[in-house]
Amino acid sequence: MEIISVNPRGYCLGVIGAIELAKKTIKQNPNTKISMLGMIVHNRYVVEYFTKQGVICLDDSKKTRLELLDEIEEGIVIITAHGASDEVFKKATKKGLIIVDATCPDVKITHQITREHVKDGDVIYIGKRNHPEAEGTVGISNRVHLVSSIEDIQQLPPLDNILITNQTTLSIVDIKPLIEECLKQFPNAKVTEEICKATRIRQEAITKLEDVDVLFVVGDPHSNNSNQLCTIGKSHGIKDAYLIEGAWQIQEDMIKNKNRIAVTSGSSTPTLLTNSVIEYLENYAKTNQFIPAKTIETLTF
């Protein structure tokens, strides 16, 4: 059995920056109430770490970031790597909160492009409905139109001076037909494809795999970029592609009698989790004995 460690994988610069900024904020403000609007990055181990440091992590799939702000009355509010709408920043400022902006630089670029274009045109934004990054971008203006499917595109109203852009963590496979459909309906639209470099090269690394029997993507179920890696693996012909949080979710029937197993991870996945999966599989390859892995309860960063 051969274990293939896919590179690149794991933390991107935006995730590293968000985590380090949050840690710095805690260290510099030991006696100040610190709240976080959503998951700092989409990994429960990272969120649990900050919760244990005393940060109040507010996350509710039924509430927008703007609504979550109603639960914060004082102190510091951390904007997560996914960003937030202009209205969130305005509301936080009006409430007298100290804002720490951990928005990923690539998301900020998309916001800047969108903010400029809506001054005299419409933006078609391809994104995942209810995802915090999409929420933040669409919230910039009522001239930003979220589409998640071909049906959404076909139901768009008449638009003017159109720019097509997208959520940074989408799949390079899934986004192509949506852009093509937009251009069918609006042939004069301009396209600014904004899948971030880190997401793109991780996805491209999966498409270059050959003769792989199993792909394990280590990541949180909430992580869109992790889910996309799994989807791309399947679309590339890897029938058995699994999204797992850690080695303890590996079952014997997933790996028994398999010759080549590849391992990668989403850009918000701690390296320790991925390394533990690789080590577990390498040990199984040497011994050919299946012993269920122990669950990792917490991580230290």
The CATH topology of the largest domain turns out to be Cobalt-precorrin-4 Transmethylase, domain 1
- How many structurally independent domains? 3
Which oligomeric form is depicted?
single chain
Helix percentage range:
40-55%
| CATH 4th-level superfamily of the largest domain | 4-hydroxy-3-methylbut-2-enyl diphosphate reductase, catalytic domain
What is the average per-residue confidence, as pLDDT, rounded to a whole number?
95
The number of helical segments is 12
Unreliably modeled segments: none
Globular, elongated, flat, extended or rod-shaped: what is the shape? flat
Distance between the termini: 32 Å
Number of strands: 12
In words, what does this structure look like?
This protein has 301 residues and is of the alpha/beta class. The protein folds into three domains: 2-11 and 198-287, Cobalt-precorrin-4 Transmethylase, domain 1 (3-Layer(aba) Sandwich), CATH 3.40.1010.20; 13-104, 3-Layer(aba) Sandwich (Rossmann fold), CATH 3.40.50; 106-195, 4-hydroxy-3-methylbut-2-enyl diphosphate reductase, catalytic domain (Cobalt-precorrin-4 Transmethylase, domain 1), CATH 3.40.1010. It has twelve helices and twelve strands. The chain has helices at residues 13-28, 44-52, 65-68, 86-94, 105-117, 132-138, 150-154, 172-185, 197-207, 224-235, 252-255, 271-287; strands at 2-5, 34-37, 56-58, 76-79, 98-101, 122-126, 144-147, 162-166, 190-191, 214-218, 240-244, 260-265. α9 runs parallel beside α10. The longest helix has 17 residues, at 271-287.
